[in-house]
Amino acid sequence: MLEQLDPVLLARIQFGFTVSFHFIFPSFSIGLASYLAVLEGLWLKTGKSVYLDLFRCWLKIFAVVFAMGVVSGIVMSYQFGTNWSVFSTKAGPVIGPLMAYEVLTAFFLEAGFLGVMLFGMSKVGRKLHFTATCMVALGTFISATWIISVNSWMQTPTGFAINARGQFVPAGSWLAIIFNPSFPYRLIHTVIASYLTTSLVVGAVGAWHLLRDRSNPYARKMFSMAMWMAAIVAPVQIFAGDMHGLNTLEHQPAKVMAMEGHFQSHPDGAPLILFGIPNSAEKRIDYAVQIPKASSLILKHGPDAPLAGLDTIPDDREPPVGVIFWSFRIMVGLGFAMLGLGLLSVLARLRGSLYDWPALHRLAIIMGPSGFVAVIAGWITTEVGRQPYTVYGQLLTGVSHSPLAAPAVAASLVAFILVYFSVFGAGVWYLLKLMGQAPHAHESDPPQTPIRSAGITPAHALDGAPVPAGS
């Protein structure tokens, strides 16, 4: 039975599964590192202990998230060699150096300062520790920059030539490769999504503790900061997403056609299809709920502007419409739900009921995981929309995989599923347990005396106490 399966499809499922798990943790750690820098900066500026206690509380969570992100990311690099060796051979001269730069600049920066950030509060000065926190936050941003650059080049490849061996090689300046046409839009959209995701998690934790104790100052501060972030960033993200969509229409029109569900061209204005059931066999959207000419208005800024459909794309070059159609709507729908939560929090502030509105707190808890769902849905839209290419318009997915039989790929896929759900399931459970513990004063204060280890008793602890024989 396994022999009848498609090894390329299995390899795609395996990479999609591991990336989906991995994407959860960087999308959290990027925003959380910046949140920690803000908390420590506010503590240094105001001297208020509430910021320091919150910093120490979320620092423990960050340590677990960062570790899980690193471990889950290592697996993907191996898959380039095991499942996608042809792609690695052909695209390696371009993407290899970019990923190496990510290690040399971002990962080394994070690793160098992470120890000071986690364990150096009582060992270095306040300014140096704050510098370490800022460097870790900067490292997460630089890491995202390089990874997005690599993926964006695969979406909108520029600055390359193809040598006699069929490999993509740099042609001219590396800047054309790094700053490819979709890179700035995708970087802004992804980083803002990370900040918004973190704010929703922090807001959900704050709301959880407010429901248990409305007078908890830590819960109040968490919830207030998170709701400010959601109210400000959500509309910015919607605008950034719109700009990203226009860029995608220019460089990857087939992806937008699939997102919009436009099987047919519309020379006199295309409708905005809100919902429906994509029918790829009949090339239509069944039971479509649509707004006439609204898609042309959004994408072309004119209700009668023509929009091409998938009927202009050869059938073997069309992306899978059903997956993209729904993943895009999940992402957009959750984005507007986040905007609604932010606006409700503004209304609550104006009414003076931000900490006394249980319905708002319950809604914030429900929306807590929505950022993760939205970033995964956005990733699915982006990557499935690139199909049937690994390097858009240049290298087909069907010829990019390793010469592996289906049983070999299926065996490793099953192993990944079992290990990921057990190991990372335990990690997520531990994170939820940490979040469920209310922050308190003097959170994780370091010991005021040297820690006894290896049977050695600190000298001051022996003052006034009988000294054991043989000491």
UniProtKB/TrEMBL annotation:
Its main location: membrane. Keywords: Cell membrane, Electron transport, Heme, Iron, Membrane, Metal-binding, Plasmid, Transmembrane, Transmembrane helix, Transport. It is found in: Cell inner membrane; Cell membrane. It is a multi-pass membrane protein. InterPro entries: Cyt-d_ubiquinol_oxidase_su_1. The chain crosses the membrane at residues 20-45, 57-78, 98-121, 128-148, 187-211, 223-240, 323-347, 359-380, 404-432. Pfam families: Cyt_bd_oxida_I. This is Cytochrome ubiquinol oxidase subunit I. The lineage of its organism: Bacteria, Pseudomonadati, Pseudomonadota, Alphaproteobacteria, Sphingomonadales.
